[in-house]
Each structure stands twice: as structure tokens, then as C-alpha cells.
């Protein structure tokens, strides 16, 4: 099960879902970095962070760039809180080391410790020269990555097996006992996402022919891509809708490349190939990809209601990217092409959601058996680089 692969908060054993090679963004320090600047090798997680970092990007990268960049980042309250947590943990670890080595002179200054313990905000400028150097070393080495609290996927939450939706596949009216206080979020990142607000229409109203029997194969591709993206963003795709959508489109053959896989093996092989590509190799490679297959199996075991909620969340993700793209005033390369891909992806996700709503539970159990059977073969195919047969036949009729 995927849950057994997830690293516990205090575990020192590396996990395929949280490998030691993952590093946090040098700019926002909130997400795991996905990209490396080709000019200075600085790690960043999104377009916004790249813009912030590139202002002071020079041909010769020096660690002082990171310090200069952090000085000009205007953190919000959540960022400040996380920074304080990191400094507290660093100090706690140093205290333990001091017990073993009385000559260690690298602990935080008394002034910095007093500020942290009193709850005051501590910025990089408040640190001493030696403290800054040590913070830089920890940031550049990826040491701070282990201090990001591991995210618990919602599909591994016990409440994911108790989802209730209306007859039309839409979310039910919230009862008084479930009402939230003003300003409180409707759900956290590890809670089951809400289903669609409106009832889903019958599939016969969307297409004039019978749906392709291979839509189950395409669903595997989409589920894997969704899990990949949420794992990469530590459950918080809302922090960067455009970036997370681009990840979805790059991993999913069905949503991003117009692919039409004809078998579960072909779908898994395509996803694993993208996961192990140079763009995402640092995330965890083949072991990470195989753990995501387990995530896919976990979701299939939850049945129709969980699948609808997942696809509804994916639709909101794409819609969020479209909205952010419309409000983006800066020049974005291939903006028109990205908008077209997002629009098409949203239509496909909605179509898949309507189709999934009408399927019996047995189909997901059968699909899970197929994924389990092909999992090992897909791994061997990837390691041996053996090509998987594909076809150009169109299997999904687009919504008119």
C-alpha cells in the first residue's frame, strides 16, 4: 500500500515519496523545488519564484545570491511562521550537538534565541554573519528540506472511505454540525476535496456515440498525474495553480500530449517515462514512480465517489490556472498555447468525471487488478527501455 511507503515525520529512512534528494525552493522556502535556473543553478518551484529570483540572477552563481534574494522576499505570515519553525529546529539540533561537543561555537546567538522564544519575527538580517553562512549552507545542501512537514494524502485518510455525494454526483448540503466558522477553510490539504457543486449530466448528453471502453486506461494516466502533482507540491497546488497545471500536462499523456494509450501497461510506461525524465529526475526517479502507482491503486480501491471528488479537484486546479493566466499581466511565453491546452484539459476532465459517475463499482476493482498485474512489467519496460506499442486511433470524442 502507498501508505507504507510514506516517510514518517521522525523517520530517518528515505522514502520513494519523499527522497533525500528533494530540495526546497530557494525563494519561497515553502515548496519542493522542481526547476533549476540554467544561469545560476538556483532551485525554484514556480514561475512566480523564478521571476523573483531572476531579478538578481548573474552569470557566476555565488551563495551570496541566495542571501540577497531572501532579503527582498516579502513573506506572508505563514512563511514567517515556517521560517521560525525551521530556525527553532536548527537550534534544537545544535543544542543536542553541543552536549556532545562543548567546543562547538556554531549555535544561534542569545539575541536570536530570545527573539524566537518570545514569538517575535526573525528575518535573515537579524542573524549574525556566522548564522547567515550556516543558513546558506543548509539551504544549498537541501538540509532544510527534511524540515518540511510530510504531507498526508487525502486518499490515505480514513474519511476517504466515507464520502457521500448526491444522486447526481454533486456535493451534499452541509449539515449544521459540519458548518465552519467565518473565514475558516472548507478543507485542509489532507482532507477529501469537495465534489462538483452541480449535478453531473448523463454522458449521453455529451457525446452521440458510446464511450470508448478504453476510458479506464485513460483514467489510470490521469490519476497517476494527479498524484504526482500533489506529491510534488506537498498537497498545496493552490500556491501555484499555473505551475501545478503545467506539471499535470507534462506528466499526463491524455491531458497534455493528446495521447491515446490503449493498455494499462502503455499508460503506466508513459507516466514512468515522464517521471524519470531529466525535468523530474531529482524528485525520486523510478522508485518514486512506482510508489505513485500504489497511490493510484489506493484511489481505485475507494470507488466512484472518491474518483469524482478527485476529478472535481483536478478540474478546480485547471480552472484556477486559467483564472490566474487571465489575470497575469506579464509576458508569458506561449501563453495562447497554454490557454488552449488548459481549456481542452478541463473539458476532458469534466467528461471523465461524468463518465465515472455512471460506472459500477466492479469496474474499479477490475481496473485495480489490471494495474497491479502490469505494475511490475511497466517497471521492467522502463529499465530496459523496451518500447510499448501505441496507436493513433482517437478513443475519446471531444465535447462539442
TrEMBL record:
Residues 1-20 are annotated as: Disordered. GO terms for molecular function: zinc ion binding. SUPFAM superfamilies: HIT/MYND zinc finger-like (SSF144232). Residues 25-57 form the HIT-type domain. It comes from the Eukaryota. Pfam families: SHQ1, zf-HIT. InterPro entries: Shq1_C, Znf_HIT, ZNHIT2. The keyword Cytoplasm does not apply. The keyword ATP-binding does not apply. Keywords: Metal-binding, Zinc, Zinc-finger. CDD domains: zf-HIT_ZNHIT2-3 (cd23024). This is HIT-type domain-containing protein.
